[in-house]
Every structure is written in structure tokens, then in C-alpha cells.
Amino acid sequence: MPSRPELVEEVLLAGRKLSTAAVLFHTALSARQGLSATEEKALDVLARRGPMTAGDLARHTGLTPASVTALIGRLERKEAARRVPHPEDGRKVLIEFRQDWVAKVAPLFEDLVRSLRELCEGYEDDELATVAQFMTDAAWRQEEAMRRL
User: Do residues 62 and 147 touch, judged by C-beta distance below 8 A?
Assistant: First the structure.
């Protein structure tokens, strides 16, 4: 078995490979949807985190408020997101992922999701739990690094 420093380097290299593959996949995916990569990932943030203000979307994406305003306009024109009244503060609006967009794009994910589910079959539950925790922690650290840029 490799030493711990060698294993850590393998994990870091694997993370770089996964990151590159993910960026390239999402670039191709966003092009198929008529979106920019930034628009596609902003939709992912909205789909995962739920409706949020433009300021919150700016914080979660690292974009400037002016960039987020333009982004929201593009997503509305493409019918992928919409502005809805804030339920607690009538002066604010929330940006919401349109669920009908899912029906349009879900088939684009089917092949990858099926392949990843097959990959998971080769691991025990405790191994999957470890992988899931590592990926969650790594994503949090990457988001924190983005905020520090």
C-alpha cells in the first residue's frame, strides 16, 4: 500500500481529474441547453439550495451583484428561473429555479447518473458514506477558497 503522503497526493490528483471532467461535462451540457456554464451552475445552486435573493445568489456563486442581476435576466428570458415575491418581506423578491426546466434537461443527465449509480454498486455502504462525506467536505472547502479569492 502507498504511504499516507502518496495516498494524499493520489486523492488530490483524483480531485483535479474529477474537477476537470466536471467542468468539461457541464460546459458541454450547458451548451446543449443554450446556457453559459455560469448560468448552468447558477441554476444548480438554485435547484439545490432553493429560492434565494439576488444577494444570496451572488454570495453562493462568487459573482458581483451587477453580474447576478444580468444573469437573472438571462435565466428568466430562457425560462429557467423566475422572480417571485419574498414570502416574508414584500419589498424583496426571490430567484426561483423553474421546476418545468427539469423536464427539459433531465434526459441530458440520465446517462451520467446511471453510470455513477453503477459505480456505487461496487462499494460497501460504509465506503459510500466515507466518499460522500469527503466530497461534501471538499466542496465546502472549495467554496470557502472561492470566497477568499
Answer: yes
CATH architecture of 34-97: Orthogonal Bundle (1.10)
Per the structure block, which three cell numbers stand in for 19?
Answer: 474537477
According to the model, what pLDDT value does residue 117 have?
A: 98
116 membership: H or E segment, kind and range: helix 99-120
User: How sure is the predictor about 104, in pLDDT bands with cuts at 50, 70 and 90?
Assistant: confident
Q: pLDDT (tens digit, 9 = 90+) per residue, 51-66? A: 999 999 999 998 999 9
Q: Are 71 and 63 in contact (CB under 8 A)?
A: yes
Q: Give dist(CA 22, CA 20) in Å, integer.
A: 5
* For the chain, domain boundaries: 1-33, 34-97, 99-149
Nearest partner of 36 among 46, 27, 45, 44, judged by Cα: 27
Question: What are the angstrom distances between the C-alpha of 120 and each of 8, 70, 129, 135?
Answer: 22, 39, 11, 14
112, three cell numbers? 451520467
pLDDT tens digits along 112-147 = 999 999 999 999 999 999 999 999 999 999 989 988
Question: H/E element holding 26?
Answer: helix 4-33
